Amino acid sequence: MRQRKIKVCEYCDRNRPHWKFVVNYREAGKRKRKFFETEDAAKSFATFKNAELRRNGIFHAEFPERLRIMAQYAVERLRPFGKTIDDAVAHYVAHLKASEKSCTAVQLVKELLAAKKADGVSERHLGDLRYRLSVFANAFDGKPVAMITRAEIDDWLRALPVSPLTRNNYRQRTALAFNFAIGQGYVTSNPAEHAAKAKVVDPPVGILSVNEAARLLEAAAPDILPYIAIGLFAGLRAAELERLDWSEIDFESELIEVTAKKAKTAQRRFVKMHPNLREWLLPHRKHKGNVRQDRFEFRQSFKQARKAAGIKEWPDNALRHSFGSYHMAHFKNAASTALEMGHTDARVTIRHYRELVRPKDAERYWQLQPARTQKIVPLVTR
Fold first, then answer.
1. Between the ranges 54-58, 63-67, 218-222, where is the mean pLDDT highest?
2. CATH 1.10.150.130: which residues of the chain?
3. Are the CB atoms for 270 and 281 separated by under 8 Å?
4. Which fold has domain 105-184?
5. Which CATH superfamily is domain 210-365 in?
6. Which of 332, 311, 131 is nearest to 208 (CA)?
7. Within the chain, which residue ranges are assigned CATH 1.10.443.10?
8. Which listed site, 71, 290, 305, 312, has its alpha carbon 20 to 30 Å from 24?
9. Residue 161 above 70 pLDDT?
10. What is the pLDDT of residues 91-124, one digit of tens each?
11. Tens digit of pLDDT for each residue in 147-159?
């Protein structure tokens, strides 16, 4: 488009006698007029507008001053972040598109669970996701996930009537759901990923004393004795013990296999069968079948054994924690203990199990084995 030179014209209006000159120009496609009292002021403005036309063309010269100011302000606000107006527009357009495509929290959880099931995750993990994410879905039901903010996630997590550790578990599962939403194009960012974490103070690990472990083995009925012995002397997790099969206990190689499907970390491992554990298991050895009996019957038998052993307060995860503590104290090898327990980092083992028991008690612990009559456990008193 040919650029027309902007000129100064004389102006005369009886109602505004002080205006003597006028400059006609265009801005945003519209005709504009600016009035001046002196010719010098009018020529100065016309010279500026003509220079602007030569420098930037008609489009820039006609670009509204209001938008230029807005653009300049936006540039200044974005500069500390190393971003441009193009970056900001691209981000916001993506957000708007995601908002249009977004779904509710209930629908997101439904799709995530279906995807995880198709991916072959364990039923136990699937159940945990279903339980925790249903709480999230109910809290934000009816609201598009693209509109859920980090502040709202923080408020929801802080209002949960749970322990700090459990709250962080909810946060982790919710972040997983939002990562899935990003992949589906429902959101452009993950508000849960940056939500505040609760401070967790690890409680002291609770273990059984050597005498308590001995009395429990002595009081245990034959149908639950293998479960207790493996927990005390092999340190399998409760979920791993519940699904352990006799076919996975190799008495020849003296190894217990924890398959990837049954392990919490989804990684296969072998746990050493210590000599005293072998002695406890041999009388009850089977070729196949679950080591643990029916859940209800097991609970009843286990409750009776605890009562007979005189253990009133049962420490959380006492069998596995006892194994870790006595193994560390006796063998003095954090890497070995971590390997047996299925920890991916020996620092976790050291933090929880180092210096919880005296070496002399650890030595007694690994000497606990059935007497020849199979039901009498030799108790060593101090």
1. 218-222
2. 105-184
3. no
4. DNA polymerase; domain 1 (1.10.150)
5. Intergrase catalytic core (1.10.443.10)
6. 311
7. 210-365
8. 71
9. yes
10. 666 655 555 556 889 999 999 999 999 998 888 8
11. 899 999 999 999 9
